[in-house]
Structure formats: structure tokens, C-alpha cells
Design a protein that fits this description.
Elements lengths: L6 H8 L5 E2 L3 E5 L9 H6 L4 H8 L8 H9 L7 H14 L3 H8 L1 H5 L12 E6 L5 E8 L3 H5 L2 E8 L2 E9 L7 E4 L3 E7 L5 H11 L5 H11 L3 H10 L6 E6 L6 E6 L8 E2 L8 E4 L11 H13 L6 H9 L8 E7 L5 H5 L1 E4 L1
Parallel strand pairs: 2-5
Antiparallel strand pairs: 1-14, 3-4, 3-12, 4-13, 5-6, 6-7, 7-8, 8-9, 9-10, 10-11, 13-14
Helix pairs in contact: 4-6, 12-13
């Protein structure tokens, strides 16, 4: 029998070993009846869904829960018809209560207030423009329910008349989009921003009649706005339920922007600017005009400067996104998007196992 030196078993316990896999890919046909669109996605993930819903309840503060379940039970009064029918179809196919499905879908909106001490919710988004003018959008999605979400992460093409209108990375049970692209036009990702008290979210929910949870809003923008300019204007000025950072990349020179969102409109907008050598933007979960104490952002900036803009490409962005702590124990998936070349999104999206 081979005997290992005493130190080796210890090292095996502490050295992280990671692997990656490609998320399953699905087509959501927008010409199909909304209640049927997500059936295959749900069917393929039935074993994981009850655990995800049960875990999500732990992240809703107790004072908010009565309001959340009330809203969830009245879904038909709040959401547009297609959204409502999709959610009802997901509930029917999964066998889970509609209120729980709705609760999961609005979890970000009810949790996005000044509550960093309650649970970890992060993300890193990067827009970088190389010396040849190619624009890359990098994205790590970080979330506390990491292990559960990895099992239900899916790549989805939303089609009409057989043509892909937009694509996104999302989760079974979740019909919104937090990371997506409109092929040949622009890409969007959302990072959590913590601002104000939960009462601010409730007041905005009442004011907007709960018609714009942020993931539904981003999906609607991807579907309806055909250009980078129109997308940035809509994402900057529309009332939202909750604060957020919205990161957008386009296809032309300097088409990259970080939009720190208040509930009413953009708190600020800062773009790429090659003329002043601002060839990249890095957003985690802090306002850029405040003191930065986030090692993810600091590390990403250092790595980008080290790589430089001359030969920066999709593989360079992979290297940045994979660097610890930019990638960390909460990272569910990573994506690299180049809106001008839609296939990059397909080829460079992976789940961390």
C-alpha cells in the first residue's frame, strides 16, 4: 500500500479544485402561448426546484414577508399579461405554489436596500475596449444560494418567427433576465446596489403598482429597444422598484457605460472614453465616487492594467473574471459578451463547479 507523507492529505483538503461546465441551452419561443414557454426548462430541473424556493424564503426579512406574500397572491393585478401567464405556467409545470414562484422572481427587488449585513449579494461587471475598438463585456454573478443556483443556471435564446431577438443567462423558475445581449446591438448586466431602507422599496412598489421588477424590466428592454443608445436612455430614466447598477456594452467606439440607478432615475452615468484613456470600467457593488474597499474591484483593475488594451480579447476577459477574488465562493457563473459577435456569449459562458 502506498503511504502518503503526512502533509499531503492536509494539502488536499485546503487547495481548492474547481472545474467548469457549459449551462444547458434552451429556446423560449415568444410566438408560443406564454403559459407553455418554460415547460421544457422546468421539466428538466424538477429535482432542484423545491429546494431553491425553500432556501429563497430565508432571504426575505421577516418584516417584509407579509407584504411579499400579499403581493404574490395578487399577481394578476400587477404584472403584464405575458409575464403573469409565464409565471402561472411555471407554477403549474413545477407543481409549486404560484405565490412562491412570484416571491422568487421578485427576491432582488425586495432585498435591494441597505442591508449588507444580512447576506452576501454581489457580482462583478466589466466593460473593456481594446486598441482595435472591440468592446467586451465581462460578468461574474455572485449570490449566496450558490450551490443551488448552479444546478438551475440556463442559457436561453428568446425567439420570434424563428429569429433570436435576445439571449440571456437566467435560472429555471426565473423568467426575468439579469445578464443578456441583443445580438449585434448591445449587452446588459445587473449588479446589486444597496441604498435606502426597505420602506423605500415598498413605497416605489406601490407607486409603480409593481409593474417593473428589475429583471422583468431588463428583459423588456432587450426585447423592445433595438439600439445601444435607446437602451441606455431607457435604462437610465425609467422608474424602478429598487436601486441597482446597470452595465451596458455596445458595438461602436466608447459604447460602454455603468449606470448607478436610484429608484427614480440614474444617480450618475459614467462611460468608456478612449480619448482620455478610460478603456475599461469595473463595477462591483460600490459607487465609483465613494471610497473603494472592495478587493474584487481592486484586483480586477490591477489585472486589466497588467493585460493592457493592445491585445485585449475575450480570453483576456476570461483571465480577469477567473482571478481570485474577482471569482470567489459565491460566483455562480461567468460570461464574456461581445455584442458585435453574438457567438462569443454562447462560447464564453460557464458555470463554476
Amino acid at each position: 500500500m502506498l503511504l502518503l507523507p503526512p502533509l499531503i492529505p492536509i494539502l488536499l483538503l485546503v487547495i481548492p479544485i474547481s472545474s467548469t461546465r457549459t449551462p444547458p441551452r434552451y429556446t423560449i419561443d415568444l410566438d408560443e402561448h406564454p403559459s407553455q414557454r418554460w415547460n421544457q426548462v422546468i421539466k428538466d430541473h424538477l429535482d432542484y426546484l423545491p429546494g431553491v424556493v425553500e432556501e429563497s424564503k430565508k432571504y426575505i426579512p421577516k418584516p417584509l414577508q407579509p407584504f411579499v406574500w400579499w403581493v404574490a397572491s395578487k399577481v394578476e393585478r400587477f404584472f403584464p399579461p405575458d409575464t403573469r401567464l409565464e409565471l402561472e405556467g411555471i407554477a403549474t409545470q413545477s407543481g409549486l405554489p404560484l405565490g412562491e414562484i412570484v416571491g422568487l422572481n421578485i427576491l432582488y427587488d425586495i432585498a435591494a436596500f441597505d442591508r449588507r449585513h444580512i447576506f452576501g449579494l454581489g457580482c462583478t461587471s466589466i466593460v473593456a475596449q481594446n486598441s482595435a475598438g472591440r468592446i467586451f463585456h465581462g460578468r461574474n454573478l455572485d449570490y449566496d444560494m450558490t450551490g443551488l443556483l448552479k444546478n438551475i443556471t440556463v442559457y436561453v435564446d428568446f425567439t420570434r418567427n424563428g429569429t433570436v431577438i435576445y439571449s440571456g443567462i437566467t435560472f429555471a423558475l426565473y423568467n426575468g433576465v439579469l445578464t443578456g445581449q441583443r445580438p449585434g446591438a448591445y449587452s446588459v448586466s445587473l449588479n446589486a446596489r444597496y441604498s435606502g431602507a426597505y420602506i423605500d422599496n415598498i413605497l416605489m412598489e406601490l407607486y409603480t403598482k409593481f409593474k417593473r421588477p428589475v429583471s422583468f424590466f431588463i428583459r423588456d428592454v432587450l426585447e423592445s429597444q433595438e439600439t445601444y443608445t435607446d437602451a441606455v436612455a431607457t435604462l437610465s430614466n425609467t422608474h424602478l422598484l429598487s436601486p441597482s447598477y446597470i452595465i451596458v456594452a455596445g458595438t461602436k467606439k466608447n459604447e460602454g457605460v455603468v449606470i448607478p440607478r436610484n429608484r427614480w432615475a440614474a444617480a450618475n452615468v459614467y462611460p468608456l472614453d478612449m480619448d482620455s484613456n478610460q478603456w475599461f470600467l469595473v463595477e462591483t457593488n460600490y459607487d465609483n465616487w465613494q471610497k473603494q474597499g472592495d478587493n474584487r474591484r481592486i484586483t480586477a483593475i490591477q489585472k486589466l492594467k497588467e493585460l493592457g488594451k493592445e491585445n485585449f480579447n475575450e480570453k483576456s476577459m476570461v483571465e480577469v473574471l477567473s482571478t481570485i477574488p474577482v471569482r470567489n465562493n459565491l460566483t455562480v457563473f461567468s460570461s464574456v459578451i461581445e455584442p458585435k459577435i453574438p457567438k462569443v456569449f454562447e462560447d464564453f459562458t460557464w458555470v463554476w463547479d
